[in-house]
Amino acid sequence: MADTGLLPSYQFPTDTFALDPGVADTPTLRRPAWIALFEFAPGNLVYANGHKLKNIRAFFAGGGRRVAGHADAGGQVEQFCFCDTCGFASRTIVNNCPRCNSPIARTAQVAMLESFEAEESTQITAAEDARQRVIFDRAEYVLDEPGRPSVLYSYDLVTLEYRERAQLLATNWGKSRRRGDRGERFLLCSSCGRHQPSGLTNQRLTKWNEDHARFCNGAVSDFILGYEFTADALVVPVPGAYLPPDAGDQENFARTLGKALAVGAQELLETEPDEVTYMAHRDGTDGWSIALYETSPGGAGYLAELASALGPWARAAHQRLFGHGCDKACYRCLKSYRNQFEHGRLDKEQVRGFLFALAGVPDTLVTADGTAGDGMRQTRTWLDANADGRQPAGTPIEHALATAIRVDGRLPAPTAQFEIHNADGSLLTVPDFAYPERRIAIFCDGFAFHGNPATLSEDARKRNRLQAMGWLVLTFWGRQILRDPARCVDEIRAALEHRELVRRDGEAES
After folding, report:
1. In b/e form, how buried is each residue of 181-204, taking b as 16+ CB within 10 angstroms?
2. Could you say which DSSP state residue 330 is in?
């Protein structure tokens, strides 16, 4: 019933992988498949019951304890092609990506696994201060299904795309190499599944081959590890108009937003951590797509509930991120043990404005049937129809915000048209309002709707520069100010309080 979507499979925990520890006093270890794909990966170290275990073998799905890399021998290995430009993945090998038309330069044998075997490396000693871990290159994909039906949830700013029972693929490409390249892949015997460590000297490689030949005559080949499953997916399109201009900052933005939405779902629905998680890929043009999915195959219906409540969902995420005093990210908001290798990319200030804008979308919801990719197309259509030109100084939206601040009575009066200069004295920008003593800059010229790409890029560059100089940047779309000025005032007050918390924490540490 879980396979057909009638019941969530967490009631029937079949999607787990096992690790035979190879020591008598430790029972078989089990983890959810999407975690075990990395924690139990060949070459990794696993700590259990006072032992430090090293994974030495992988058993392919369907092959039982006699692992085989060929379908006719019982193991499951499939050839996939992958697009590095947009995150396309498919069993059908093509020369050009059908999504973005980029050349397909990467194919791989994907070993679908079900269990692992380890041996004791050493016992854990008191002198071992930190656990050793191998950093693996992780990537998830929504498998390509042309024309697949979806349900579109249209809001201001974005059209969400809900895909029921989508086919997802989690992959482990092996030990990470330099940023921007895939991992080094796994060298596994296609008959017994034994792992050949990479980087062996000629002498060690000869010994490994001799030891392996004593019990198996199989050949070693390179694989990536995979786990394919069915789960609902909710795609959040992020066009380039919402992104900073730098490619690295764009990825930071997308991954921070994905994690923010995941923790927002946890807050709103009161779920356990990682019940809803995300993947992020470039869309092949100037944008990114964030796909949220449930880690329990079969799902619990969380994503359909989130799709129909974008405003409350974004407000929960905003509160989780900005309800305390950390600077960019911490374990109270975006960081976790499982995403520790992305910690350097997480910066909540980059997504503050976008989350605030999503949190203020009207509750009026329009749903329609569509197909895969319609969410991004409709979002771009909305952008084209609603792009506001830059407002001159002293516009009604500035007056509305200034009036709201004065009427609220809880905030000090901001400085209007405050000039901010570069270190060389040249003028960088002039926010509509500012609190110079707290280094908070407020722009009322709209969120990402500045008329043309050149203006947008220049605005983003200046904001990034402001943030690098230590300024907190608040950007309000004109419609937000006119529709709900009190909420904008609340955001300014929260920013002032956040700055005060950061200042106090800094003084306490010093």
Report:
1. ebbbbbbbbbbbbbbbeeeeeeee
2. -
Q: Tell me the whole-structure pTM to 2 decimals.
A: 0.82
Q: What is the pLDDT of residue 301?
A: 87
Token digits for 273? 């951590």
pLDDT tens track for 352-377? 989 998 998 887 778 999 999 899 99
Contact (CB, 8 A) for 32 and 321:
no
In CATH terms, the fold of domain 388-510 is Endonuclease; Chain A (3.40.960)
8 A C-beta contact, residue 307 and residue 15: no
Q: What percent of the chain has pLDDT over 90?
A: 48
CA distance 216 to 141: 34
| 278 closest CA partner among 234, 328, 227 | 234
Evaluate if residue 271 carries a pLDDT over 50.
yes
CA–CA gap between residue 108 and residue 137 (Å, rounded): 14
Identify the CA nearest to 473 among candidates 455, 451, 489, 495.
495
Distance of alpha carbon 375 from alpha carbon 150, whole angstroms: 9
Task: Kindly state the average pLDDT of the residues 384-405.
Answer: 73
Distance from C-alpha of 11 to C-alpha of 158, rounded to nearest angstrom: 34
Among 345, 347, 344, smallest CA distance to 333 is for 347
Bridge partner list, 140: 170
Residue with tokens 């960081």: 335
Nearest to 61 by CA among 299, 187, 228: 228
Which residue in this structure is represented by tokens 């309800």? 323
Give the residue among 377, 390, 378, 365 at the shortest CA–CA distance from 448: 390
Confidence of residue 180 (pLDDT cuts 50, 70, 90): low
Q: Could you give the CA distance from residue 107 to residue 96 in angstroms, rounded to a whole number?
A: 12
Mean pLDDT in the chain?
A: 84
- Whether 78 has a pLDDT exceeding 50, the answer reads yes
Sign of CA dihedral 305, 260, 90, 381: positive
Count of CB atoms situated within 10 Å of the CB of 435: 23
Q: How far is CA 76 from CA 16, 62, 64, 114, in A?
A: 17, 6, 11, 10
**CA atoms lying within 13 Å on the CB side of residue 315:** 14
Q: Token match 């030990």: residue?
A: 175
Can you spell out the DSSP letters for 71-131?
GGGT--EEEEEE-TTT--EESS--SB-TTT--B--EEEEEEEEEEEEEEEEEE--TT--S-
Taking the C-alpha atoms of residue 296 and residue 165, their distance in angstroms, rounded to an integer, is 12
Listed by start position, the domains of the chain span 9-143+170-227, 388-510
Task: Output DSSP code: residue 228.
Answer: E
Name the maximum alpha-carbon separation found in the chain: 84
For the chain, how many residues are written? 510
Average pLDDT over residues 117-135: 65
H/E stretch holding 5 reads none
Q: Which residues pair with residue 57 across a beta bridge?
A: 117, 194
